[in-house]
C-alpha cells in the first residue's frame, strides 16, 4: 500500500506552512504536494504557544494562529489546503526513510514516495532523563514544544493559581514561560546553571536589565546550579524541586526548558550531518540532490559570516522554507540563500530584536534605566551584530540594514556616543557604492559616497553628523 507525490514536506511545523504557501504561490498543481506531520493539526505559528496561548484573558487559540499569519500572510486553515489539492497526512509518524529509493515508511505501514523531499522535522525538547533526572512524566512537570504541551501547561496553571512554579532553564522558553506564569498570578522561581539569563545571546549588562525587570514582577532567580531530583506525593505529583547545591524549592508545577535537539535520526547514515543538523548548500539542498532541509534541522552557509550555522528560530524556518521551494521549482532564477540571523522576544511590556552575530567586542548604548537601549558587536573592525530593546519599526529596520552592510568601525567610543543614531544614519545613505573614510570630530567612520557627485557625499556626512549629535544631545538632556 502506498502513495506517490512530486513534492513531500516531512514535518508539520512553521516551515511546512510557509513552504506550502510558496508552493501554492508558484502554482503547484493539485495532488502533487503532501505534508506529513506527527501533530494532528495543520501547521501553526509555534511562537504563539509561549506568548498568547498562555495568557489568562483572551488567549490565542486555533485557527487564529495557523501559518502564515506570523509574517502577515494568508492564514492557512485545513480548508485552504483542501481547496488547493494539498494533501495533509496528519497524526502520522514516519519510522524510516530511504533517500536512495525516495521513499518514506509510516508507522502504519504505508509507503509514500516522492520526487523532491523537504525535511522540516524541526527539533524536540530535551528531556530531564537525558541528564540523569527522573520525573518528566509527572502530571505537573511540563515542557513546551507543541500544541499538546501548551494545553498541558494551561491545564496545570489553572489548577495552581497562587501557587509556586519552578522554571528550569534561563533561555527563550524559560524567560517567556516565566512571564506568562507571572501574568497568571503564579509565584515563579527560575533555576539555571549559568551566571545570567539568555547566556548564549545576552551580555551581562543586558541580562541584568531583564533580570531586574523580572524581579520587579516577583520572579526569583537561582543561578549557578541545576536540578538534582524531585520530591513526589503519593499520587506521583511533584511537590518540591531539589537542587544540586542542596536547596529545596516548593513546587506546584515545573516547566522544563533546557534546550532542543534537531530531529535528524531518520537520515543518519544517508545524508551528511554537520553541527547537529543536516548539512545543506546555498540552495538548501542536502548531500542528496532530491532532498532539501529547512528550519531548525538545517545547517546552512551564512554568507554574511562565511561559515555554516544551524539556527533555532522561527524567522529562519519561515524564510528558509520559502527559499527551498523557490530553488526546487525555479532553480535558474533562484540564487544562494542569503540570510541575516535574527532573533526576537516579547515579554511583559518589553520587546527586543537582535540581528547578526554576537561575536567580538560589545558596545552598549542608550539608557539602561529607561525603555530604549541596545548594543553593537564589532569584530575585525566591522559591525557584525546589533541588539535593541524598545525600538520602533523604523529603528529595528535601521539596525537590521546596518548589520547587513557590516560597516567599518574605527572608533568604538564614537560608536557608543552615536548609539542608535549610527544605524539610523547608515541605513539612510546610498548603498553598493565605493567606501570613503570621513572624519567626524576625532573619530573616523566609513560611509559610502557616489563617485562623481561630491556634494551628495557632503550631504550624507552632514546628515550623519546631525543625526549622531541630535541623538547624543537628546540622551544627555534626558539624563539631566
Summed over residues and divided by their number, the pLDDT gives a mean of: 90
Class from secondary-structure proportions: alpha/beta
Radius of gyration: 24 Å
Taking pLDDT < 50 over at least 5 consecutive residues as the criterion, the unreliable ranges are: 432-480
Helix count equals 10
Q: What's the multimeric state?
A: single chain
Strand content bin? 25-35%
Task: Write out the strand line-up for the largest beta sheet, numbering strands in chain order.
Answer: 4-3-2-8-21
Q: Based on CA inertia axes, which overall geometry fits?
A: globular
User: Span from first to last CA?
Assistant: 76 Å
Number of strands: 30
Summarize the biggest pleated sheet.
5 strands, parallel
In short:
This protein has about 475 residues and is of the alpha/beta class. About 25% of the residues lie in helices and about 30% in strands. The longest helix has 26 residues, at about 455-480.
